[in-house]
């Protein structure tokens, strides 16, 4: 017999057995599901102009069913095909390889219905799947991330300083960009500055500018970063590394809205919203005399905490798939999704480098994976430190502490390897080895 779908304009031909939850979820997105048996049904055919997608559900499929689905795919070249892999699906057979090769997207169990709905919508519209309109760079559905996004929406319209806190690699700059994009300053510049990477003798000049002749080598007037952000947002990352003299000048700007270029006593009015970020405890820095208390209070008007990846639950899988999809847009690779073991490993891992580490691991896995499905070994997580028991948690804490110690020392020594080695009483070779172990790219951190 021939299956000719003419009634439903948005239809998923499901070759397999969807769950009731999956049917209801897609129905709420405006899609109907027609369940068919690949062995008994004839050629699949759609009416011209109607969005119709075929989904090869390989959960529990035997070899006969796999071959039947592969034949259906071969006989329906005009349909867009998706594939759903089960926990026990082997990808080595010729039929499964054919299905995976010609499918537009792959999914694994447990099925991410929200992602499936986005993919179906993009197929129907003929456009890439749209991300969240307000926060295109913030991926996640955990309660802690939704709460953070709620705070972002509240803070964005209020033209006050914001202090963003969180561990290294959690995405503090992305949160700052979201604040800027949702504010009335969205059409003006967003100027990010890494305070920890500024040479000590040039901090004042970089932030506030200088006049010609202000110091040796100043052959022309230079506009500083704050002045260049006129009407926009200045993002001061790693604000805790700002020298005390520059802290004084920044405080004056926050209090009076004016700056002075080096070599000039003429105040200049500057209109820029300050968003600062730090991974260190500024309260302790104030107690230790490393950070001005009055500046801290000026910056800490609105406070936003960006959670570490280990506290975001299932977000790790959503972010990993998002990173992989973005990577595939610009690079040719076989990898399309993550296997069950890889997903379990990602959930167990402590992620001391947070989202930045996850991005690095996923991109590496996309390059080295020999199959369409990324495994735990591709992510280098097959034997990685987990969080499942007391010993693993202790090891994860030790790894995290070691990473934070080497990173803090690098920043304090202004990324001078010899000085860092001296302070830690280790060799330069050991510093480089620890940087490699903890995925600290010196050229990107400086």
Characterise this structure:
The chain is 42% helix and 14% strand. The strands form five sheets. It has a five-stranded parallel beta sheet with strand order 3-2-5-6-7, with helices on both faces. The protein has a five-stranded parallel beta sheet with strand order 9-10-13-8-14. It has helices spanning 20-28, 63-75, 94-102, 113-125, 143-155, 172-182, 203-208, 225-228, 244-256, 282-287, 293-299, 315-330, 340-348, 354-368, 390-412, 417-424, 428-437, 442-445, and strands at 3-5, 11-15, 32-36, 44-46, 52-57, 80-85, 105-108, 162-165, 190-194, 233-237, 258-259, 268-269, 273-278, 302-305, 337-338, 373-374. Helix 2 packs parallel to helix 3, helix 9 (244-256) crosses helix 11 and helix 15 (390-412) crosses helix 16. It has 446 residues and is of the alpha/beta class. The chain has 18 helices and 16 strands. The protein is elongated, with a radius of gyration of 27 Å.
How would you sum up the global shape?
Answer: elongated
Determine the N-to-C terminus distance. Answer: 66 Å
How many alpha or pi helices? 18
Low-confidence stretches: 1-8, 128-132, 385-392
Estimated share of beta-strand residues: 5-15%
Based on CA atoms alone, the radius of gyration comes out at: 27 Å
Major β-sheet strand ordering = 3-2-5-6-7
What distinguishing features does this structure have?
elongated; 18 helices; disordered N terminus; five-stranded parallel sheet; 446 residues
């Amino acid at each position: 017999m021939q299956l000719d779908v003419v009634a439903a304009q948005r239809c998923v031909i499901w070759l397999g057995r969807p769950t009731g939850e999956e049917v209801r979820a897609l129905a709420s997105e405006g899609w109907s599901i027609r369940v068919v048996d690949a062995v008994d049904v004839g050629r699949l055919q759609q009416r011209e102009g109607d969005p119709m997608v075929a989904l090869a559900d390989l959960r529990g499929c035997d070899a006969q069913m796999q071959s039947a689905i592969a034949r259906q795919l071969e006989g329906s070249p005009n349909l867009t095909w998706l594939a759903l892999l089960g926990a026990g699906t082997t990808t080595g057979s010729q039929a499964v390889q054919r299905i995976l090769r010609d499918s537009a997207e792959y999914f694994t169990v447990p099925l991410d219905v929200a992602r499936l709905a986005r993919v179906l919508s993009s197929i129907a519209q003929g456009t890439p799947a749209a991300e969240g309109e307000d926060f295109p760079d913030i991926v996640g559905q955990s309660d802690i991330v939704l709460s953070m996004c709620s705070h972002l929406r509240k803070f964005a319209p209020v033209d006050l300083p914001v202090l963003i806190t969180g561990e290294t690699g959690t995405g503090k700059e992305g949160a700052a960009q979201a604040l800027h994009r949702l504010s009335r300053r969205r059409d003006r510049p967003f100027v990010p500055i890494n305070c920890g990477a500024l040479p000590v003798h040039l901090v004042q000049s970089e932030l506030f500018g200088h006049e010609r002749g202000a110091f040796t080598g100043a052959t022309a007037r230079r506009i500083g970063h704050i002045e260049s952000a006129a009407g926009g947002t200045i993002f001061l990352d790693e604000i805790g590394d700002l020298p005390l003299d520059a802290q004084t000048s920044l405080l004056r700007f926050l209090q009076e809205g004016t700056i002075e270029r080096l070599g000039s006593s003429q105040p200049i009015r500057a209109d820029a919203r300050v968003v600062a970020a730090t991974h260190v405890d500024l309260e302790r820095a104030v107690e230790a005399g490393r950070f001005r208390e009055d500046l801290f209070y000026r910056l800490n008007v609105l406070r936003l905490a960006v959670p570490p990846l280990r506290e975001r639950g299932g977000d790790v899988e959503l972010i990993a798939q998002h990173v992989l999809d973005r990577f595939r847009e610009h690079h040719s690779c076989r990898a399309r999704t993550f296997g069950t073991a890889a997903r379990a490993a990602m959930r167990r891992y402590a992620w001391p480098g947070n989202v930045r580490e996850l991005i690095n691991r996923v991109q590496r896995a996309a390059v080295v994976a020999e199959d369409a499905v990324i495994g735990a070994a591709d992510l280098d997580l097959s034997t990685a430190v987990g969080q499942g028991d007391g010993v693993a948690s202790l090891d994860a804490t030790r790894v995290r502490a070691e990473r934070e110690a080497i990173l803090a020392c690098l920043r304090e020594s202004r990324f001078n390897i010899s000085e860092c080695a001296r302070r830690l009483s280790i060799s330069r070779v050991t510093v480089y080895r620890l940087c490699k172990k903890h995925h600290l790219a010196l050229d990107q951190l400086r």
